[in-house]
Structures are given as C-alpha cells and as structure tokens.
Design a protein that fits this description.
Bound molecules: adenosine monophosphate
CATH superfamily of the largest domain: HUPs
CATH architecture of the largest domain: 3-Layer(aba) Sandwich
Structural class: alpha/beta
CATH topology of the largest domain: Rossmann fold
Number of helices: 10
Helix content: 25-40%
Distance between the termini: 31 Å
Shape: globular
Radius of gyration: 20 Å
Strand content: 15-25%
Length: about 300
C-alpha cells in the first residue's frame, strides 16, 4: 500500500505526490469541516476503482468545476447480488493512486467494508426512480445498494457536486432522485461515456474478458449504432428499433443478451414511438462478465478519445 503523501514516479523523471488517503468516515468529516471553513467547493467522484479513462474524464470534469476533488474507491458489497462478481472485481489500488497522483487529485477516500458497514448496520436507502425495468429488474437490490453507499459518501464528503457516468444512466436517475428527496444539496453531474476507438464502452469489468471476449463485447456498441442508423433511416416504432439492437447481440456467438430497450429518458419506460431523445439500453453477459451500454437514439456514438 502506498503511504499518504508519498511520492510516486510518473512519466519518466516526473514525480507527483500521491493523494491524501482517507480511510474512515470520521477522518473525512474532519477534513470536510476544514474545507467548509475555508470556503472550498468539493467535488466527489465515486468509483469502485480499477480506474480507466472513463473515470478520469469525470475527475477532469470535477477539477474544472470544484476547488477540491475527492475520488472514492470502494467496491461496495451491498450492490452486488448473490453469484455476482464481487470477489472477482478487479482490485488495483496502487496503480489507481498513481493515476490519481498524475492528475493532481488531492484526496482519495478508500474506506473498508467494516468501516462503512460495522456490526449492527441496519439502514437501507431505497429510491423509487429510474423505473423497475432493465438493471433494476435484472439485479434486484442493486440500486438500493448503490443509493445506500452514495448517501453515506455524500454525508461524509459533503460535496457541492458529484460526478457520474452516462454509461450507468439508470444509476444517475437514482442518485439524482436521492439527492433531491433527501435535500442533500448535491448537484449530480452526468459525464459522457468514454469508449475505445472501436466503440466498446470502457469498464473496469472489460479487464475480466479474454482477447476474444473483448472483441465479442463490441456487439453492445454495434447494437446501439444499429438502432441509431435505423432511426435515421426512418424507423420509429420502439419495438422495431429494439429488435434491431437485440438482433446484433443475439447474433454474436458466446454472448447472452440480457435486455435491449428503447426508452423515455424521464421514466425509463419503453416508448411506442421513438424520438431523437429516446435512450437505447443494452445489456449482455459473456465469459461470465456483465456489461451494459447506452446511447441517445439521435446521437452517433463518440468514439475518439
Ligand atoms: P464504477 O467504478 O464502474 O462503479 O464507475 C464509477 C463511475 O464511473 C460511475 O459513475 C460510472 O458511470 C462511471 N463510468 C464507468 N465507466 C465509464 C465510461 N466508460 N465513461 C464514463 N464514465 C464511466
């Protein structure tokens, strides 16, 4: 484990200071009081680590808008269902801290499971937003796990803004509602999905794929592109666009389609007649890895980065 304030080699001879590593809610709350006293605007980027350019794009957004940026790294057991990949989820704190150091992040909050959920922990935050379909239906209890940990992260960090990725757009809806309903005073900012040049949305879980699996996983973004192309060619019935997206994934050997849908972004219900603002949602499993992706129907995927 890297030590607080240690120097880390980066970019040849350059060395950057590691972020301050905070491991307990109490420690973070103390820092938060200092930040409040000195009028600092705190931005929070919650992550589960195994950082990639998608996470770092949220960090960059936060740095543009806030004077102090906290990145949390916590693999939250509450949001994993039975039989899901909690144990297999990539853990690489050392290299994550080096990446954050390179970007000049000041504070990294890395609590332990026992620290966040001590014996007797009995609270669950259930947010009825983002609909009951798609990820909510496929992973019962997932969003309650997300809302519970995010409520705790907001409570101890006290951010003005918190940054989440569009790839998990249903999660963004849940967190926005949470912030509003509990008067948390946190602006929830959604950053765009960062993709590899071939279209695959970056995800920590991509590391769990073989080279062949990584190739096959491209079918998710191809499915989104297909729906967009059909829409631009004049197809507007939600079921037809859904079928177009689903068939791309179904045709990929070794890939199991979980769902495809064309939905209204306000309530995540399937649309009868699609518009440019409709959102395409896809999810599939391959090599035991659960992947999701999404796009706005009327916008081509942004591939360059
Ligand atoms: P995770 O570590 O996967 O829980 O993700 C932490 C945050 O990063 C969430 O808000 C995700 O939506 C966001 N994120 C994950 N992948 C991407 C990506 N490819 N582009 C932009 N944001 C992302």
């Amino acid at each position: 484990m890297a030590e607080r304030g240690a120097r880390v080699a980066s970019g040849g001879s350059r060395a950057r200071t590691l972020p301050e590593i905070v491991t307990t809610p109490d420690e973070l709350r103390r820092l938060r009081l200092e930040w409040t006293r000195s009028g600092r605007q705190v931005g929070l980027v919650p992550t589960m680590g195994a950082l990639h350019p998608g996470h770092l794009s949220l960090v960059a957004l936060a740095q543009r808008e806030c004077s102090t940026v906290v990145v949390s790294i916590f693999i939250n057991p509450l949001q994993f269902g039975e039989g899901e990949d909690y144990l297999a989820y990539p853990r690489q704190l050392e290299s994550d801290l080096a990446l954050l150091a390179e970007r000049g992040v000041q504070v990294c909050y890395c609590p332990t499971v026992d620290g966040l959920y001590p014996d007797g922990f009995a609270t669950k935050v259930v947010v009825k937003a983002g609909g009951d379909l798609w990820e909510a239906a496929r992973r019962p209890g997932h969003f309650a796990g997300v809302a519970t940990v995010v409520a705790k992260l907001f409570a101890s960090t006290g951010p003005c803004r918190a940054y989440f990725g569009e790839k998990d757009v249903q999660q963004v809806a849940v967190v926005r509602r949470l912030a509003l309903d509990l008067d948390l005073g946190v602006e929830v900012v959604m950053g765009p999905t960062i993709r590899d040049r071939d279209g695959l949305a970056l995800s920590s879980r991509n590391q769990l794929l073989s080279a062949a699996g990584r190739e096959s996983a491209r079918c998710l973004s191809r499915a989104l592109t297909k729906a967009g192309e059909q829409f631009r060619a004049g197809v507007v019935r939600g079921v037809d666009l859904t079928r177009a997206a689903a068939s791309v994934i179904e045709q990929e050997p070794g890939v199991e389609l979980h769902y495809a849908g064309v939905v209204d972004p306000s309530d995540f219900q399937p649309v009868e007649v699609a518009s440019a603002d409709s959102r395409v949602l896809v999810s599939a499993q391959l090599e035991g890895v659960h992947l999701i992706d999404t796009s706005r129907l009327g916008s081509p995927l942004q591939l360059e980065r």
